[in-house]
Specification:
This is Nuclear receptor 2C2-associated protein. By secondary structure, this protein is an all-beta fold. The chain is about 0% helix and about 60% strand. The mean pLDDT is about 95.
């Protein structure tokens, strides 16, 4: 998912809500999320959450991906400074709730 190799991917277990959590070495402001799902195994809705180092997660943005194999880009407006983000993949297109991601990029800048 992070190695830029089209032959590798991340796949979730089955279930109602899957997620990916990332921690950064310093505070950042997320400006864009790019994700490439496998068609048929995408999320119909996503929720981007974030928090400072010892804070509680709060919703930054709601995302609505398309169910296809294309790299999709989601601009994030006025994001707060965060040290951790969590992407909740809700309502999978797959009957069993599985998510498959070939590429995930989080773009932004240092918050300091």
């Amino acid at each position: 998912m992070f190695d830029s190799d089209e032959e590798t991917c991340w796949n979730s277990d089955q279930g109602e809500c899957q997620w990916v959590s990332l921690e950064f070495p310093q505070s950042v402001r997320v400006s864009e999320l790019k994700v490439q799902f496998q068609g048929g195994f995408s999320a119909k809705t996503c929720r981007l959450e974030g928090c400072p180092k010892d804070g509680d997660l709060t919703v930054i943005s709601h995302l609505y991906p398309e169910d296809n194999n294309s790299l999709q880009s989601f601009p994030i407006q006025e994001a707060p400074a965060v040290d951790k983000v969590k992407i909740m993949f809700e309502n999978s297109a797959d009957f069993f709730g599985r998510i498959i991601i070939y590429s995930l990029d989080i773009l932004g800048e240092n918050a300091s």
